[in-house]
Design goal:
about 170 residues; alpha+beta; Aminopeptidase; 4-stranded antiparallel beta sheet; 3-stranded antiparallel beta sheet; 6 helices; globular; binds coenzyme A
């Protein structure tokens, strides 16, 4: 059975295995495996505090982080940002997700967004912005299959792919 849960120290081993997979594809930059192994409890607490507007990196808005679990296996993570900044409106949107490499192309991506939309509604958001790089076929399909209404295609810089912006109405 799959479900979203707030970060939980109980799943340390599975989370760290997933993190190692992300690091192998050079995705997770802010987390050091060695530090985490030693201080997992405190890491989890800080991740959870972000939804209260505490322990946020510089410039971050309050955000709620969930882990997607399939029974006891850590599958991926999703973050719901409580409000928008100019940069988030242009690039990041309200919801960001990642499925660990070994679990991709099995439908978890579509499900993580579906479940996150239910949580976003509970947080009181009325409509959410979803963005993805134009060349990210998987993410584009995930957004469109969850009812994303295409807004536009944004030019960011010559080095970056175009960003696609979609809105999903939660009312
Ligand atoms: C993008 C990502 C979340 C997709 O997760 P996933 O679990 O593989 O997604 P799903 O299995 O639900 O696949 C959704 C659809 O996209 C397709 N798809 C997934 N990855 C794909 C890829 N790399 N290339 C082409 N199609 C892909 C699937 O086949 C499926 O197609 P279908 O609707 O025709 O069946 C995952 O690759 C990931 O975490 N990438 C890194 C982080 C990232 O890009 N996050 C999104 C930022 S906007």
């Amino acid at each position: 059975m799959i479900k979203l849960i707030p970060p939980d120290p109980k799943y340390k081993l599975s989370f760290l295995e997933g993190l190692q997979e992300f690091q192998q594809e050079e995705r997770s930059t802010e987390l050091e495996l060695e530090d985490l192994e030693k201080n997992f409890q405190s890491f989890v607490k800080k991740q959870r505090n972000r939804s209260k507007g505490e322990d946020l990196p510089e410039g971050f808005v309050p955000e709620t982080i969930y882990w997607l679990m399939d029974n006891d296996d850590y599958v991926g993570r999703v973050v719901i940002r409580h409000k928008m900044t100019e940069i988030l409106l242009r690039e990041g949107g309200h919801i960001g997700y990642a499925i660990r490499p070994s679990k991709r192309k099995k439908g978890y991506g579509k499900n993580i967004l579906k479940l996150a939309l239910e949580e976003a509604k509970k947080l009181g958001l009325k409509k959410v912005l979803l963005t993805c790089n134009e060349n990210n076929i998987g993410s584009k399909k995930i957004i469109e299959s969850n009812g994303g209404v295409f807004q536009d295609r944004v030019f960011l810089s010559a080095e970056k792919p175009y960003k696609l912006r979609y809105w999903i109405d939660l009312t």
